[in-house]
Amino acid sequence: MTEPGAQPLMKDILGPAALVVIADAGVAASPDFDRAAFEGAAEPGLAALSVMERVRHIADALHVALPGDYARAVAILCAMAPRLTHAFQAFALAEYVARHGLHDVARSMGALAELTRYGSAEFAIRPFLAREPDRILAQMLEWTRHPDPHVRRLASEGARPRLPWATQIAALKADPTLAAPILEALKADPSLYVRKSVANHLNDIGKDRPDWLVAWVSDWSMADPHTAWIVRHALRSLVKKGDPAALAILGARTDAAVTVKGFAITPAGIRLGEAIAITVEIGSDADTTQRLVVDYRVHYARPHGRAAAKVFKWKTFDLEAGSTQRLATRQVIRDFSTRRHHPGRHAVDLLVNGRVMASAAFDLLAP
């Protein structure tokens, strides 16, 4: 996939300055680290590479600089890691393990558990998973009991079916039960860092196996706030699509009895870099409290009259019988590496529990 923000990352994170940091860490960690060999292998051709290509390129340069004995090399890498200044630098150390440690799984798993504390080893563990899924998933299940949240997160993140930028593992996409024990073990983890990974893992599953996801989390107790947080975020893609079963788990109904007034977008026209304000009043027509999941969907103008829609989360709340809730939000319309904007009319839908309840629009003006 396209790597979001690739150009800034190449210049600012894994550029020449990063090579100096890694080389300094290697020399400080061991006299066996050959700085000249590392720099001689790492510097040529770096400028032309993407972010993840740079990770692999630096890992290969480390191979030239480190001792040929894998056990000694891994010990040096683990000593280098605390001296690094950015997670992407540590990705390269973990990548060395992925490229040269498949023959020594036990030692490599120990190294990845250490290196993931400084830069996630989620990418580096994928070749091991592809080669020995049962053995590695068993190791990852053990990591769910690790005291360090970085290691617990690796158990979930490394097994994500749709992990961005990573090698896809068909078995994990086809059969979510393979990693289900890991998710079960982490469903009430005290670390938000871990819970985000579990929710993203589950959201991945929902893109391929929505029925399985809904059935699986419907048995989880929402009484635990940590579990409830995971479930809400795990179901976000299905909720955006108005999936009735996903909404029901959150206590929301697709046939919410509400009246929408004053859905408006101001100003009516903006230029790139400026903001729109979105406001609405939602009134209850029910005689009981209703759970409402309110989102909005922007239909981005594209060349030749096409449009591309994206749903944004707004607010989830309980609306008491006969009451009214006013909502307001603001969004700056600016380009990202993953989304470029084009002049034209941008329609915006208000979604309440998955249903379109109102529409408005704004114009993005030409520069």
Description:
The chain has 367 residues and is an alpha+beta fold. Among the domains are: 1-124, no CATH class; 258-364, Immunoglobulin-like, CATH 2.60.40. Helices cover 45% and strands 20% of the residues. It is built from 17 helices and eight strands. The chain has helices at residues 6-12, 16-29, 35-42, 51-65, 70-80, 87-100, 105-115, 126-131, 133-143, 149-157, 170-174, 180-186, 192-208, 210-217, 225-234, 236-240, 244-249; strands at residues 258-266, 269-270, 275-284, 290-301, 307-319, 324-332, 344-352, 355-364. The strands form two sheets. A five-stranded mixed sheet has the order 2-8-7-4-5. A hairpin with a 5-residue loop joins strand 4 (290-301) and strand 5 (307-319). Helix 13 (192-208) packs across helix 14. The chain is globular, with a radius of gyration of 24 Å. The relative contact order is 0.08. The model is unreliable at 1-10 (pLDDT under 50).
Features:
alpha+beta; 17 helices; Immunoglobulin-like; 367 residues
On the 0-100 scale, what is the average pLDDT? 94
Strand elements, count: 8
Describe the global form: globular
Element order, helices and strands?
Answer: HHHHHHHHHHHHHHHHHEEEEEEEE
- For the largest sheet, list the strands in their spatial order: 2-8-7-4-5
Poorly predicted residue ranges: 1-10
> What can be said about the biggest beta sheet?
5 strands, mixed
Helix percentage? 40-55%
Secondary structure: elements and pairs:
Elements: H1 6-12, H2 16-29, H3 35-42, H4 51-65, H5 70-80, H6 87-100, H7 105-115, H8 126-131, H9 133-143, H10 149-157, H11 170-174, H12 180-186, H13 192-208, H14 210-217, H15 225-234, H16 236-240, H17 244-249, E1 258-266, E2 269-270, E3 275-284, E4 290-301, E5 307-319, E6 324-332, E7 344-352, E8 355-364
Parallel strand pairs: 2-8
Antiparallel strand pairs: 1-3, 3-6, 4-5, 4-7, 7-8
Helix pairs in contact: 2-3, 2-5, 3-4, 4-6, 5-6, 5-7, 6-7, 9-10, 10-13, 13-14, 13-15
